Amino acid sequence: MKKQTRCIHSGTHMDPATGGVNTPIYTSSAFHYIDSGDQPYPRYFNIPNQKTVVEKLAALEKTPTGMVFSSGMAAISTLVITLMKSGDHAVLMDDMYGGTHAFVTDLFERLGMKHTFADTDPAAVAAAVRDNTSLIYIESPTNPLLNVIDIQKIARIGKETGITTAIDNTFASPVNQNPYELGIDAVIHSGTKYLGGHSDLCCGAVLADEELSARIHRTAAHLGGSLNAQTCYLLERSLKTLYIRVAQQSRNALDLSRYLSTHGAIDRVYYPGLETHPGYDIARRQMSGFGGMLSFEINESKMTNAGFMRALRLIKPAMSLGGVESTICAPALTSHKKISREAREKLGIRDNLLRLSVGIEHIDDLTADLEQALAD
Ligand SMILES: *Cc1c(COP(=O)(O)O)cnc(C)c1O
């Protein structure tokens, strides 16, 4: 089946009691156990709604199986703690989601774990590997600069060294990129973003093979970051439209990135679908669409970020991303606020940088909103 079809049919099971076409929501946290094998319990990640939504997600990420969590950070922290113990080292990237960066810098030392933030160049990742490295963790495209990492090269480093590789695939979504097929061991999502897609739920996922999933499962039951049946169902419902949403978001983002590139009040646009983007060739190879996220720098001699954001009528200043509605934020004031200005500038995150999460509105309305706000 193609992804469009998998979105709708994989992991969705008719109601056996009524013949209804949707998976029923099974709210029980206690299940009759005499003569039954697998004992379902929400924190064991094995209640019916958790299992069915995992089936759909795994079908979309083309992995054998996986797990859903109560947030993206629950998925990330559980994965990390599964793969690392005191004394172990992880290679991560310097350009990374702020929450993951904060998890590493706040907690690793306390847990006796070491880390290196490497450059997004695979050679830098390879050079950062030590004898005690047990995890290589990447993102692509990255937040907020949309850097693109050669996923196959990272997977190869993992295979050669025997180190588990993981990727945060939130920005690309399973519609545009399937890292497991490129050799990555674990694919992570903040389902709060594109998978949920309507800015109204919080969840996370890890998709992997049976063996790694079973290892994560054992840690996860201790840490307890499982997802309730109602949100599992909401996620399943959202996933039915994932393909058409992300396809439209990717088309809109490409159009807007081209429009902004030619605008006199914009200094620079970061979007992997632009031929001028340094990661364009790699993105074309490993992605089927370039995604709904783009960033750009306003020319400060023409207008301030604050003035521009206040002038927007349709596009909403908001911190999250991946929803059907277009949202915008200034990373220096939101996701990367806790990082010093010096460290930010080193990463290339300037104060005039804005990150746009493109929604599924009509492209003409989005362009018109940017046009009028930039003319103010
Ligand atoms: C939001 C986000 C996360 C964290 O997800 P939560 O659901 O907020 O815990 C992780 N990675 C990326 C890339 C994100 O955008």
Salient structural properties:
globular; alpha/beta; 12 strands; 5-stranded mixed sheet; 38% helix; 7-stranded mixed sheet
Q: Which sheet architecture does the biggest sheet show?
A: 7 strands, mixed
Q: What structural class results from the helix and strand content?
A: alpha/beta
Q: Based on CA inertia axes, which overall geometry fits?
A: globular
Mean pLDDT: 96
Q: What is the number of helices?
A: 14
What does this structure look like?
By secondary structure, this protein is α/β, with parallel strands linked by helices. Helices cover 38% and strands 15% of the residues. The chain contains 14 helices and 12 strands. The chain has helices spanning 3-9, 48-61, 72-83, 98-107, 122-128, 151-161, 173-176, 210-223, 229-239, 242-261, 280-286, 305-311, 341-347, 363-375, and strands at residues 65-69, 89-93, 114-118, 133-139, 164-168, 186-190, 204-208, 266-270, 293-298, 316-317, 327-329, 353-357. The strands form 2 sheets. A 7-stranded mixed sheet has the order 1-7-6-5-4-2-3, with helices on both faces. β5, α7 (173-176) and β6 (186-190) form a beta-alpha-beta unit. α1 runs antiparallel to α2 (48-61) and α2 (48-61) runs parallel beside α9. It is globular and about 75 Å long. The N and C termini lie far apart (49 Å). The model has no long low-confidence stretch (mean pLDDT 96). Bound molecules: pyridoxal-5'-phosphate. Pyridoxal-5'-phosphate (PLP) binds next to α3 and α4.
